[in-house]
From TrEMBL:
InterPro entries, sorted: AstE_AspA_cat (IPR055438), Peptidase_M14 (IPR000834)
Alphabetical list of PROSITE patterns matching this protein: PEPTIDASE_M14
Record has Metal-binding as a keyword: yes
Domain Peptidase M14: 31-307
Species assigned in the record: Reinekea marina
Keywords linked to the UniProt accession: Hydrolase, Metal-binding, Zinc
Keyword check for Hydrolase: yes
Protein name: M14 family metallocarboxypeptidase
Protein family membership: Belongs to the peptidase M14 family.
Obligatory cofactor(s): Zn(2+)
């Protein structure tokens, strides 16, 4: 169990940040890895087998980040669309590399059954800095709504808008990490002038279903598939995960659209958010990536059978 600190080192407790505090926070963000080396190089290598496009560009000071999407070739108007998104929170590594693993190893076998659209790294600035927010201290995964304040979210909305009514399935690949509790929740509380109480970080994989349009059989099928490659998070002593009641093994529910979450951005019949726990002593980085790729495969298989 990790617990949040009561006072974040930036700002005054109980007072929301202004421009000064946001600039102070921004000045402390450091690049730890390369989006070009880790992501763009892999996406460009896939261009021999898939259609690769840029759907926007982020400009943060001197840093420019092209946003890439991957499509299966020979889209067919009579086929449904499957949307896979990763790296909406840039620091959640297996979301990015799990999406790329799925494309590299499995996407082609579905290409005659569905049209696939994959955005593997929605937040490259956050990817490089291993951060949840963008450079403006905004969480993209609370920003999928009209007039979005996060360009990461707005760009993805523009990409998907022409085809959103054809989307059968949207699976959004995430992680829950120890730094959610030690860094990101305290930072959020400080930014908004609130107090951050402690939470227990679940040890294992879990899913977030849609409160407004639940699909319990769909979520269960993914859990059963992923359980073959990594462990599923058990409920805490209150029968909850991350403060939400468990509705089935390894599944909780959020009102996806109301919260501005990426998984709620379309009217897809089947929606889910994966949550991998990379800090577990029982899971390797390879297992985390594999769990994401397996989740995508099992989600597509279920949607094709029951959609």
């Amino acid at each position: 169990m990790t617990t949040a600190t009561e006072h974040y080192p930036i700002g005054t407790p109980g007072q929301p940040w202004g421009d000064v505090e946001k600039l102070q926070w921004l000045s402390q963000q450091v690049k730890h890895r390369s989006y070009k080396k880790d992501v763009i190089s892999k996406v460009e290598a896939l261009a021999e087998r898939f259609d690769v496009e840029t759907y926007g560009q982020l400009n943060y000071g001197a840093d420019q980040y092209p946003l890439y999407a991957i499509r299966t070739r020979n889209w067919q108007a009579n086929l449904p669309v499957v949307l896979v998104t990763g790296g909406v929170h840039g620091y959640e590594t297996s979301g990015v590399h799990g999406a790329l693993k799925f494309v590299e190893e499995h996407a082609e076998r579905f290409s005659k059954k569905v049209n696939l659209l994959i955005a593997p790294c929605v937040s490259p600035w956050g990817y490089e800095r291993i951060h949840r927010w963008n450079a403006n201290a905004i969480d993209p995964n609370r920003s999928f709504r009209d007039n979005s304040p996060a360009e990461e979210a707005a760009a993805l909305i523009r990409l998907v808008e022409p085809i959103q009514k054809r989307i059968l399935l949207h699976i959004d690949l995430h992680e829950t990490t120890d730094t959610d509790e030690t860094e990101f929740r305290p930072a959020l509380a400080a930014r908004d002038g609130k107090f951050s109480g402690p939470h227990i970080i679940p040890d294992g994989f879990y899913l977030v279903d849609d409160t407004e349009h639940p699909q319990p059989a769909f979520q269960k099928a993914i859990i059963e598939a992923v359980e073959k490659v990594t462990h599923i998070a058990p409920a805490d002593s209150k029968g909850e995960l991350i403060g939400s009641p468990i509705t089935d093994k390894g599944v909780i529910r959020y009102p996806l659209k109301a919260l501005g979450l990426c998984a709620g951005m379309t009217p897809a019949t089947f929606k889910t958010t994966t949550e991998v726990y990379p800090d577990s002593l029982k899971a390797t980085p390879e297992q985390c990536n594999l769990a994401q790729a397996v989740a995508v495969q099992s989600a597509i298989e279920f949607a094709l059978k029951h959609g």
